[in-house]
Structures are given as structure tokens and as C-alpha cells.
Write a structure and sequence with these properties.
The protein is α/β, with parallel strands linked by helices and about 600 residues long. It has four domains: about 100-130; about 145-320, Rossmann fold; about 330-395, Helicase, Ruva Protein, domain 3 (Orthogonal Bundle), CATH 1.10.8.60; about 410-595, Peptidase M41 (Methane Monooxygenase Hydroxylase, Chain G, domain 1, Up-down Bundle), CATH 1.20.58. It has helices spanning about 5-25, 35-45, 80-90, 100-130, 160-175, 180, 200-215, 230-245, 270-290, 310, 330-340, 350-355, 360-380, 385-400, 410-430, 465-485, 495-510, 545-570, 570-585; strands at about 30-35, 50-55, 60-65, 70-75, 145-150, 190-195, 215-220, 250-255, 295-300, 320, 435-440, 450-455, 585-590. It has a six-stranded mixed sheet, sandwiched between helices. The chain has a four-stranded mixed sheet with strand order 1-4-3-2, with helices on one face. Strands 12-11-13 form a three-stranded antiparallel sheet. Strand 8, helix 9 and strand 9 form a beta-alpha-beta unit. Helix 8 packs parallel to helix 9 (about 270-290) and helix 11 packs across helix 13 (about 360-380). The longest helix has 30 residues, at about 100-130. It binds adenosine-5'-diphosphate, magnesium ion and zinc ion.
């Protein structure tokens, strides 16, 4: 809301109240005497009244000669039939008039006030929507800059990102003593780009740098720059740097830089001009400041590949720090950080939990700990136990249990055989992850049943036979249905998708097919989030090769399926016993059913 406008409105209200009050006061000023009705009647009888004006509730009039120094009087009317009796009884009597002052004021002021409040509310909303001071303030807006004097986060709160921390340590040293740092003429990088999948702790790291160095932390998110008015984003960038310069030494952190710094010309859906202007302003500011001022620019993105190359050239965001998903030790360290905040059973095996969570990011691990704590609270436990964590993990991976979903007996039986097929394949295939738990309790995400495996270690290289074994395990669900019922169901749809993906990758990406050879036919596209919506998958091989690929994929799937079936026929007794046990207990582990134990070799 415009400050001046607001001022004027209050003036108006004040003047109105003053005026009303003045009138009221005038009406009852001392020139006019308020007298009792009986007194009026006496004056009337004595012939002292010169004129009267009769109003509905009162009588005003003047005396022939001033009475008690007053020439005028006002009196309230009392109904006439009473007056005679009252006069006869020699009572002093008077009427009273409703005090209308307050209601008059209210009837005037209330609507005005309501309109005013409504109007203000409306403007607030508009202003909020645009994140600025109303329609009139375009370009002069106070950017939504978040300044934290002390982030309260240190490197101790960030676990498992040791390389990133080591690199950022340098920045901390610089921020602590900008003067001595340049002793040998070394130049601190102007901008540092943290890149990595979502939830790996980029934002956390940036705040930790500020916390470690004890400097102010200016942060703004790239997505906030997406404005509807051209020029607003650029003004915000200017504002941000202006404010930061005053607060140096400090950190400017631009989160989700990709929302702002998308390669110019990519994805031409509206707002292109606006984004380009904002980006250009950012580039200009980047060139215009000197790191020796004590400002360090940090940015984070999970899609570095779509950033405009101009952002990444030397002298701008010229250092890139990759924050990747943590490995097993990293995960254990992150779990320790988050478990420190809750009550934990000392017997909880953190390393085992880390082993169960390959590919989890810091944010997912934090969420897992929270889910476990919720579960422990709900069962009124004192501490978080391994059971809580396992349950929370299943919830995160497979969704909530849906006990209410009723399968008919035949469906349940199908699911039991299907899952036992997966589980037995996992137990008997060399190199497959050992089985952790098999269940036929339907879950909200995905399947009607599920087989949880427990990876023993993080894998960075996978051999061809291991990939093939994975396909066998994926197809073993359907194979089990086939073996027992002689018919297959739709329950395997998801397994088929994943098996097909593996087959295609073997052929097209890993160059593992004997005929198609080492040629890569399908590059990894996109970044951490997968394909960019705007780049069409392109094929740079011939129709003939395409046909060969299709044949090779089909053949790989066929082979895997037949291997799965052969394996299950071999273990038919275990399969039948396991399926029966599942139908009875719904959830079983290798301890309940020893054939699920890993058989190595
Ligand atoms: P990003 O910005 O990379 O998407 P965040 O920094 O916002 O991820 O991380 C979200 C949350 O996940 C953090 O607040 C923290 O609780 C947790 N987290 C992520 N990475 C780590 C880590 N390395 N150590 C400890 N906690 C982490
Ligand atoms: Mg973030
Ligand atoms: Zn399956």
C-alpha cells in the first residue's frame, strides 16, 4: 500500500470524527440551557417563553428575557396526558432523548471503515501475489530477499559430503579474513555453483558456509524471479546485490538457479523476455562486483546442463562443486546427524540401515528418521527401534499398508506365488541382492505385494551377467504364476517395464550385445532429473539397426524369462511351501523361511 495514500485516508477519518463531535458540542453549548420539562411548563405559565420549535422528541425555544444568563433553552418532551398528573403531584419531570451521537458516528464510519479494510485487504493480496508493493510500485519493489544474520547451521550438520565441504572450507577461510587471503594475489572464485540431485543438501551446505564463517546470508530462489511484469526480476537482482554490498562480508545464495538461468532460447513458453532481462541483469551484476569486497556468490541447481553457458564462463560461476548422492558411509553419517535429534534405541544398527537405503539422498534419510520417530510415537514407545526404521522404510519405498483393500482368494493366491517367485529367484541367483522381507499386504504405491531386497553394498560397476540376473529376478514373478497356474496375470506389468529397460540398456547403452557391438545407440539424456521435456529423443541409427535392437531386446527378455521359469521349476517345492506360508502369515522373512536365505555361488 502506498504510504501517502494511507495517510490521507486516516486524515479524512479524523476530520470527520472531529466535525461530528464539534456539531454535537455546539448543539449543547452554554448559550442554550437544557431545562427540565416541568421547568419549561412553569416558564410557559409565567409567560417567559417567547418562541418554541417543537421537534419530535424535544422542544427548542427562546426566553423573552434571559433566564440564568441564557436566552435559549431546550427540553425533552414528556407525553401530554402524564404532565397534568405529574404537575398535580408537584413532581419535577423531564423527558429524555436517545443519545444518537454514537449511532450517528457508527452509521457513517462503519461502512467507510469496512470499505477501507476490504480495499486494503485486496491490495495486500495483489501485492503479495506479485511479491512487491502493489501495482504502482513496479520496479521499485523491495525484493523478497531473506537475510539471515546467523544461519545456525555448521558443517557438523552436513554429513557425507566431505569433498564438497573441503572445497567450501576455502570460502569460509576467505570470508573470515578477506584481507589476508589475497596476500599472494590469489583470487577467490567469484561464483560457486553447487550441483546435484534434489535433496542432497545443497541449500544446507550454502547455509553452513555462512554459519561457519559467521557472515550474513542473503538468499533468494530462482523460481521467485518468475514474474509477470517485465523488469521486476531485473530490479530484484539489482536490489539483492545492492543490499548485499552494504552488508559485506556476506554470502549471496541463489537457490534453484536453473529457474532463472535457463539457457536462453530453450523452451519458448511466454515470459522469455522477462527471464532474459533478469538473467542479463544477473550477468551484469556478476561482472560488476569484486570478490575482494567480501561477497561470495553461491548458487545451487539440480540441472546444471540446462544453464546458460554465459553463466558458467570464467569470472562468473566458474567453480562447480558436485554434491552427489551419499555412499554407504555417507548415509550412515547423515543418519547419525538426524538420529541425534531423536531418542534412539542404542541397539539400532545404523550401518545396517545405511545398507538398506542405497540411492537415498540426505533429505530422504532425514524423512526416513522422521517417519520412524512418528511410528515410535504412535506405538507409544520410548525409543526408535530397528523395527520402526524398517517399517518406515517400507512405508517410504512401498507406501502405506492398505489393509482395507480386499483381494479375492484367487487374487491373493496369485500374489503369493508371484512374490515368492521373485524372492526365490533373488535367493538363488548369484550376485542378486539378498531378500529382506516378502509381503502380500497391499500398499498404496505400486504392488499388491512386494519383495524387499537388501543390497549389501553400493555398486558402481555392474557386470553383464548381474544385469541379466536382475532381469531374471524381475521376470520370476510372472514365471511363478505361469508355473503354478499355467496362466499369467496383469500383476507383472511393472516388473516387465523394469526388465525391458534393463534389456534396452544392455543393448543400446552398455554395448553388451554380441552382434550390435560396442556402439552406443542411446546416450544418457538430461541431467539428474532425466530427460528435458523439450529435447525430443532423437535416433541416430538406421532402420535396420532399430530392428536389430528390437530383436535383441526381445531375445534377452525371452532368455531371462525361460531361466526364471527353469529356476522355479527346480525349486517347485520351496515355491509351493513359501506361497502357502505367505498366504497364512502375509509377511515372511528369511528367518521364517530358510529357503529364502542367500545361497552363494
Ligand atoms: P537440496 O537443496 O540439495 O535440494 P537441502 O539442502 O534442501 O537439499 O536438504 C534438505 C534436507 O535434507 C536438509 O534440511 C537436511 O535435513 C537433509 N539433508 C540433506 N543432505 C544432508 C546431509 N548431507 N547431511 C545432513 N542432512 C542432510
Ligand atoms: Mg535446495
Ligand atoms: Zn512382481
Amino acid at each position: 500500500m502506498d504510504k501517502r495514500l494511507q495517510f490521507n485516508v486516516w486524515y479524512f477519518v479524523a476530520a470527520f470524527i472531529a466535525l461530528t463531535a464539534f456539531q454535537y458540542w455546539m448543539a449543547s453549548s452554554s448559550v442554550t440551557e437544557r431545562i427540565a420539562y416541568s421547568t419549561f411548563l412553569q416558564h410557559l405559565e409565567a409567560g417567559e417563553v417567547a418562541t418554541v420549535t417543537v421537534e419530535p422528541e424535544q422542544i427548542r425555544g427562546s426566553y423573552r428575557t434571559p433566564q440564568n444568563g441564557n436566552s435559549y433553552f431546550v427540553t425533552n418532551i414528556v407525553p401530554e396526558d402524564l404532565t397534568d398528573r405529574l404537575a398535580a403531584a408537584n413532581v419535577e419531570f423531564d423527558g429524555t432523548v436517545q443519545n444518537t451521537f454514537l449511532s450517528t458516528v457508527l452509521s457513517w464510519v462503519m461502512p467507510l471503515a469496512l470499505i477501507f479494510i476490504f480495499w486494503m485487504f485486496l491490495f495486500r493480496r495483489i501485492a503479495e501475489k506479485q511479491g512487491m508493493g502493489g501495482l504502482m510500485a513496479v520496479g521499485k519493489s523491495k525484493a523478497k530477499v531473506w537475510v539471515e544474520r546467523d544461519t545456525g547451521v555448521t558443517f557438523a550438520d552436513v554429513a557425507g559430503a566431505d569433498e564438497a565441504k573441503a572445497e567450501l572450507q576455502e570460502i569460509v577461510a576467505f570470508l573470515k579474513q578477506p584481507e589476508t587471503f589475497g596476500r599472494l594475489g590469489a583470487r577467490i572464485p567469484k561464483g560457486i555453483l553447487l550441483s546435484g540431485p534434489p535433496g542432497t543438501g545443497k541449500t544446507l551446505l550454502a547455509r553452513a558456509v555462512a554459519g561457519e564463517a559467521g557472515v550474513a546470508f542473503f538468499s533468494i530462489s530462482g523460481s521467485e524471479f518468475v514474474e509477470m511484469f517485465v523488469g521486476v526480476g531485473a530490479a530484484r537482482v539489482r536490489d539483492l546485490f545492492e543490499q548485499a554490498r552494504k552488508a559485506a562480508p556476506c554470502i549471496i545464495f541463489i537457490d534453484e538457479l536453473d529457474a532463472l538461468g535457463k539457457r536462453r532460447g530453450i523452451g519458448g513458453f511466454g515470459g522469455v523476455d522477462e527471464k532474459e532481462q533478469t538473467l542479463n541483469q544477473l550477468l551484469a551484476e556478476l561482472d560488476g562486483f569484486d570478490p575482494r569486497d567480501g561477497i561470495v556468490l553461491l548458487a545451487a541447481t539440480n540441472r546444471p546442463e540446462i544453464l546458460d553457458p554465459a553463466l558458467m564462463r570464467a569470472g562468473r560461476f566458474d567453480r562447480q562443486i558436485v554434491v552427489d548422492r551419499p555412499d554407504k558411509t555417507g548415509r550412515a553419517a547423515i543418519l547419525r546427524v538426524h538420529l541425534k535429534k531423536v531418542q534412539v534405541d542404542p541397539a539400532l544398527d545404523i550401518d545396517a540401515v545405511a545398507g538398506l537405503t542405497p540411492g537415498f539422498t540426505g533429505a530422504e534419510l532425514a524423512n526416513l528418521v522422521n517417519e520412524a520417530a512418528i511410528r515410535a510415537t504412535r506405538r507409544k514407545g520410548e525409543q526408535i527401534t530397528m523395527d520402526d526404521v524398517t517399517e518406515a522404510l517400507e512405508r517410504v519405498v512401498a507406501g502405506m499398508e492398505r489393509k482395507g483393500r480386499l483381494l479375492n482368494p484367487h487374487e491373493r493366491e496369485t500374489v503369493a506365488w508371484h512374490e515368492m517367485g521373485h524372492a526365490l529367484a533373488a535367493a538363488n541367483l548369484p550376485g542378486a541382492d539378498p531378500v529382506h522381507k516378502v509381503s502380500i499386504i497391499p500398499r498404496t504405491i505400486g504392488a499388491l505385494g512386494y519383495t524387499l531386497t537388501r543390497p549389501t553394498e553400493d555398486r558402481f560397476l555392474i557386470t553383464r551377467s548381474e544385469l541379466e540376473n536382475r532381469m531374471v529376478m524381475l521376470l520370476a514373478g510372472r514365471a511363478a504364476e505361469d508355473v503354478h497356474f499355467g496362466e499369467v496375470s496383469t500383476g507383472a506389468a511393472d516388473d516387465l517395464v523394469r526388465a525391458t529397460d534393463i534389456a534396452r540398456q544392455i543393448v543400446m547403452r552398455f554395448g553388451m550385445h554380441p552382434v550390435l557391438g560396442q556402439a552406443v545407440l542411446d546416450r544418457e539424456r538430461g541431467g539428474h532429473l532425466g530427460d528435458d521435456v523439450f529435447t525430443m529423443p532423437q535416433r541416430d541409427f538406421s532402420e535396420a539397426t532399430a530392428r536389430e535392437v528390437d530383436l535383441a531386446v526381445r531375445e534377452a527378455l525371452d532368455t531371462a524369462y525361460h531361466r526364471a521359469k527353469a529356476l522355479l521349476v527346480d525349486h517347485h517345492d520351496d515355491l509351493a511351501a513359501g506361497a502357502a506360508m505367505l498366504l497364512e502369515h502375509e509377511t515372511i522373512t528369511p528367518d521364517d523361511f530358510p529357503p529364502l536365505r542367500k545361497r552363494d555361488g
